[in-house]
Specification:
The chain is elongated, with a radius of gyration of 21 Å. It has 2 domains: 137 residues, Phosphatidylinositol 3-kinase Catalytic Subunit, Chain A, domain 1 (Ubiquitin-like (UB roll)); 133 residues, Kinesin (3-Layer(aba) Sandwich), CATH 3.40.850.10. The two termini are 36 Å apart. The strands form 2 sheets. Strands 1, 2, 3, 4, 5, 6 and 7 form a 7-stranded mixed β-sheet that branches. The chain has a two-stranded antiparallel sheet with strand order 8-9. By secondary structure, it is α+β, with helices and mostly antiparallel strands. It contains 10 helices and 9 strands. The structure holds adenosine-5'-triphosphate. This is Unconventional myosin-IXa.
Length: 295
């Protein structure tokens, strides 16, 4: 869970008001209700109700509106599910979770705690549609098949990973597409061979060795947009054409140019060393601050 402050303020009252206005990201796992989606991040405040959060998930994942949905809170992997009333506030429930569940969601440890989206039957009973473990296993297997090129890369619902593929291109559709992807934590979007990055200002678990391997030797656009894909194309073009390659990174101050450069260098050194640590990445990164002062 991440909180973004809604404004200034001083003292206890100010801090409390700021907290009341803080926006949190609640991850809602739709399970079998939305194929290919692990979780749907929803922005919520302390007083956002379960009904409102569900409405946002329905909208984002384009779920069947004729069905009735509820949120279930799980505190133990595979354990009992507590169904929230429509007026319950998920953020308030999350604030009772241990710190590890709130702060280290990308790591292990807090992963037992989560909200699931469940379908409610007409008679009021809950349609469970298989266990979460089973569904996560199926999703993981599908993801592996996509990685190996045996299944096509699914596009986030209603979104385009390449703005060139927007059926109608104007400022509004373009910004809507970027916003919608950003809300699903897809910070990268292509415009042909150009990569747009929106600074998430938070750690995303998309820069690990698994991703380095995943983007190794693929043509641009084949996989979900990523800075590693750009680095990969430049690296292989350099090898094939035996010519220097250039990646231009531009943006306003604080937009993430340095971070993007670091990720780029990380991928290039990982590709060139193929697992052999030579310290070259640290040497190149170490030169960064020196080069930046001469900007
Ligand atoms: N991909 C990213 N993932 C997570 N956080 C990021 C990412 N990109 C940028 N950030 C965050 O944004 C901050 C600013 O990014 P960065 O220093 O790269 O900006 P910059 O464009 O190089 O700024 P300047 O032009 O002022 O040097 C980083 O310290 C980091 O916290």
């Amino acid at each position: 869970m991440n909180a973004r402050d809604g404004g200034g303020g001083e003292g206890t009252l100010g801090r409390r008001r700021r907290f009341e206005n803080s926006e949190f990201t609640v991850r809602i796992y739709p399970g079998a209700l939305a194929e290919g989606t692990i979780y749907c991040p929803v922005s919520a405040r302390k007083n956002t109700t379960a009904a409102e959060a569900i409405e946002r998930v329905i909208e984002r994942l384009r779920l069947d509106r004729t069905k009735c949905y509820v949120l279930a809170e799980v505190k133990e992997f595979g354990g009992e599910e507590w169904i929230l009333n429509p007026s319950d506030c998920p953020v308030q429930r999350m604030l009772l979770w241990p710190r590890v569940a709130l702060e280290q969601r990308a790591l292990s440890g807090g992963d037992d705690y989560r909200f699931l989206l469940r379908q409610k039957n007409l008679d009021g009973s809950i349609h469970y549609g298989g266990s979460l473990q089973m569904w996560l296993r199926v999703t993981e297997e599908r993801r592996c098949m996509v990685e190996r090129g045996l299944l096509p890369q699914p596009e986030p619902r209603g979104d385009h990973a390449d703005l060139c593929r927007l059926p109608e291109l104007n400022e509004r559709t373009l910004l809507d597409n970027l916003r919608s992807r950003f809300r699903q934590e897809c910070i990268y979007t292509y415009v042909g061979t150009i990569l747009i990055v929106i600074n998430p200002f938070k750690f995303l678990p998309i820069y690990n060795p698994k991703h380095v391997k995943m983007y190794d030797n693929h043509t641009l656009g084949e996989m979900e947009p990523h800075i590693y894909a750009v680095a990969d194309v430049a690296y292989h073009a350099m090898l094939q054409r035996r010519r220097n390659q250039c990646v231009v990174i531009s943006g306003e101050s604080g937009s993430g140019k340095t971070q993007s450069t670091n990720f780029l260098i990380h991928h290039l050194t990982a590709l060139s060393q193929k697992g052999f640590a030579s310290g070259v990445e640290q040497i190149i990164l170490g030169a960064g601050p020196v080069l930046e002062v001469s900007k």
